[in-house]
Design goal:
It is built from 6 helices and 7 strands; from the N terminus they run βαααββαβαβαββ. With 179 residues, the protein is an alpha+beta fold. The chain has one domain: Aminopeptidase. A 4-stranded antiparallel sheet has the order 1-2-3-4, with helices on both faces. A 3-stranded antiparallel sheet has the order 5-7-6, with helices on one face. β6 and β7 form a beta hairpin.
Length: 179
């Protein structure tokens, strides 16, 4: 099955709500960081559009595009492109953050999402994307390196209390994204 990475639309409410039930509680903040208990789906779409436009952002946030990985009508993962870096995301977070639901891992979906994200990065002016990853996350390290990620450094992050790797991935040469 092929994966399509795209923003949520009005037609995705049932798929999104199914995902809310399927992601574990600890993964939920990765799946839907802008969704709050009791929030309507139309209000979530408005919040995501504001994030993309850079309007009414919470303190220390930057404009970002949230995309979901769909296989058929099932959401298997999500990916966020931060349009620029702030001081915090230079250290932890980077331009691109992604996650795949546990039961869909090791099927190539993270690689497909990252590959499809590179033209989106270009469309917002990012030529080289910073991606950070926990030093013990071997699966994600392989995904990043497979995409051409060049290791900048590994450092101990006292906030998350673990070593973090920072990689740079070239966005140029990827296909154009129309979104």
């Amino acid at each position: 099955m092929s994966l399509t990475l795209r923003p949520l639309t009005d037609e995705d409410e049932a798929s999104f709500r199914r995902g809310l039930k399927e992601w574990s509680e600890s993964e939920l903040r990765w799946y839907a960081p802008d969704w709050k208990q009791g929030m309507s789906f139309p209000n979530l779409l408005i919040r995501l559009q504001k994030n993309r436009n850079g309007s009414e952002l919470p303190t220390n946030f930057v404009p970002s595009t949230m995309l979901y990985g769909f296989v058929d009508r099932i959401i298997v993962g999500h990916l966020k492109v931060r349009h620029r870096l702030n001081e915090a995301s230079k250290i932890y977070g980077g331009h691109i953050g992604y996650s795949v639901m546990s039961k869909y891992r090791s099927r190539g979906y993270a690689s497909a999402m990252l590959r499809q994200a590179l033209p989106i990065c270009l469309s917002v002016g990012i030529r080289d994307a910073l991606i950070t990853v926990d030093d013990d996350n071997a699966h994600s390290i392989r995904v990043i390196e497979k995409a051409g990620g060049r290791l900048q450094d590994t450092f101990y992050n006292a906030t998350v209390k673990k070593p973090i790797r920072r990689y740079w991935v070239k966005c140029e040469g990827s296909s154009k994204w129309v979104g």
